[in-house]
Design goal:
The chain is an alpha/beta fold and 273 residues long. The protein has 10 helices and 6 strands. A hairpin with a 2-residue loop joins strand 3 and strand 4. Helix 3 packs parallel to helix 5, helix 4 packs across helix 5 and helix 7 packs across helix 8. The longest helix is centred in the last third of the chain and has 26 residues. It binds iron/sulfur cluster (SF4).
Length: 273
């Protein structure tokens, strides 16, 4: 019998790579342990992503600067902020990011995909993921696709972040096969600084990232089999505590992570005030 394919998204692979125990809490234990409260920075990121999706859904003649505030207001996620004052400050900041970012974008450009799901199967995994945006740009032998990922975190990003991102590489690998067009360029668009960190992959570097993802998938399947076979789930999915525990949704469930002080849900947006 062929082995079943491991169905995965970038977040699923990323969770295991960060901390196998976190993966277990999120994807294996049922009923799943209760998560902590929602994070304001996730709300802020989701609001900005929603507004950008709304922008590209507008007819070209309505993609005007005055539309941005309405889009952001209509897609605003309120969870996790300390109070209304902090939420209002975050709204103003996000509006400034969007206005300045969209001012630099060609309003008539039609991406090939916006929040577009791309999927691909290999001998080991069935990958699917939602790319923030897929652009088409002229290349030496015709149009080529570019994976664009929006970022709203506090710190800027550089070319190493774009090169090392497994998620971006897997999107590119999948998009190339879904659209049957070359897709080697990946870009992180950091809204707060208005900077773009990009990397041009080769077929080999995409392949390397894919092999790494398959290795992770094999490790996860082996850990799941071990638990089914009676191993202690804590051993099969070890905790890898670190500073990230303060931001982990499962810190209150996890004995190792509980030793790290938890962050307030709004801590990441407060630092940016
Ligand atoms: S609290 Fe830390 S060790 Fe525990 S699951 Fe989360 S990231 Fe892993």
């Amino acid at each position: 019998m062929p082995e079943r394919l491991f169905v995965c998204t970038p977040s699923k692979l990323g969770a295991y790579a960060d901390c196998p125990r976190r993966y277990r809490y999120a994807y294996v234990d049922r009923p799943a342990p209760q998560k902590g409260p929602p994070w304001a920075h996730n709300s802020l990121g989701a609001s900005v992503h929603n507004a950008l999706r709304g922008w590209y859904a507008l007819p070209v003649d309505r993609r005007r600067p005055e539309a941005v505030a309405g889009l952001l207001k209509g897609s605003w996620v309120r969870d996790g902020y300390r109070d209304e004052e902090q939420e209002r400050a975050a709204f103003r900041r996000a509006l400034g990011w969007l206005e300045s970012y969209l001012d630099g974008q060609e309003p008539t450009a039609e991406p090939v995909g916006v929040e577009r799901v791309v999927a691909v199967k290999t001998g080991v995994l069935a990958f699917n993921g939602r790319a923030d945006r897929i652009d088409s740009r002229p290349g030496p032998s015709g149009p080529e696709l570019v994976i664009v990922d929006y970022k709203t975190g506090r710190t800027g990003l550089d070319a190493d972040d774009a090169r090392g991102s497994q998620a971006l590489a897997l999107y590119a690998y999948a998009a190339e096969r879904v659209f049957r067009r070359p897709c080697r360029r990946v870009e992180l668009h950091h809204l707060p600084t208005g900077t773009v960190a990009g990397h041009d992959h080769s077929a080999e570097s995409l392949d390397r990232q894919l092999r790494r993802a398959e290795e992770t998938a094999r490790d996860i399947m082996a850990a799941e089999r071990a638990v089914t076979g009676g191993d202690d789930p804590d051993d099969a999915f070890p905790a890898t505590p670190g500073t990230r525990c303060g931001w982990c949704d499962y810190r209150r469930t996890c004995p190792e992570g509980a030793q790290t002080p938890g962050r307030e849900p709004w801590a990441a947006v407060e630092r940016a005030d």
